[in-house]
Amino acid sequence: MDKIQLGEFIKSLAVDLEIKEGKQYLEVTVPPSMLHQLARQLHDKKETQFDFLFCITGLDYGSDLGVVYHLRSTVYDHVVVLKSRIPDREHPQIDSLFDIWQSADFLEREVYDLLGIRFTNHPDLRRLFLDNSWGFPLRKDYVDDINIVHK
């Protein structure tokens, strides 16, 4: 299955998806409320078998926060990028994908630690690098007068 066929297949799984061919990988933008369901289907479907979550990145877009997931099928050698934007900067949360891919464990904890995005249903969501006095240093509005970190 090439990128175009993979995109068409993913589009058949759910409405409200924005799919585009990126420079390297197929990119799928999905609302936060649909992320877990789509991820489960991509993992479980015989046609896709995305069995490896190899990267999670948290982003601060200024107006909202986002999470980007890189998935690989070791069976078909496909890669897809799932992107989701969270509009609530004060209490950002999105479903954990730990129950689908255990590799999400430390990756989600890192995003939580540095950006403050809570992953609901994560089995052990706690800070990985920093203590609670830090706030979330990768947010664009983060200011720390003690350690002289300014935007």
> Which class best fits the helix and strand makeup?
alpha/beta
Order of helices and strands: HEEHEEEEHE
Determine the mean pLDDT.
93
Number of helices: 3
Architecture, CATH level 2? 2-Layer Sandwich
Residues in helices, as a percent range: 10-25%
Q: List low-pLDDT spans.
A: none
Q: Report the sheet with the most strands, covering strand number, pairing sense and barrel closure.
A: 5 strands, mixed
N/C terminus separation: 44 Å
Q: Within the largest sheet, what's the order of strands? A: 1-2-5-4-3
CATH homologous superfamily, by name? Answer: NADH:ubiquinone oxidoreductase Nqo5 subunit
Overall 3D shape: elongated
By CATH reckoning, the class would read Alpha Beta
Strand tally is: 7
Q: What number of structural domains do the residues give?
A: 1
Question: How large is the share of residues in beta strands?
Answer: 25-35%
Evaluate the radius of gyration. Answer: 16 Å
CATH T-level topology: Beta Polymerase, domain 2
Describe this structure in words.
By secondary structure, the chain is α/β, with parallel strands linked by helices. The protein has a single domain, classed as Beta Polymerase, domain 2 (2-Layer Sandwich), CATH 3.30.460.80. Helix content is 24%, strand content 27%. It has three helices and seven strands, in the order αββαββββαβ. The chain has helices spanning 3-13, 32-44, 104-115; strands at residues 18-21, 26-29, 52-60, 65-73, 78-86, 93-95, 118-120. Strands 1-2-5-4-3 form a five-stranded mixed sheet. β4 and β5 form a beta hairpin. The longest helix has 13 residues, at 32-44. The protein is elongated. The chain starts with a helix and ends in a 31-residue tail after the last strand.
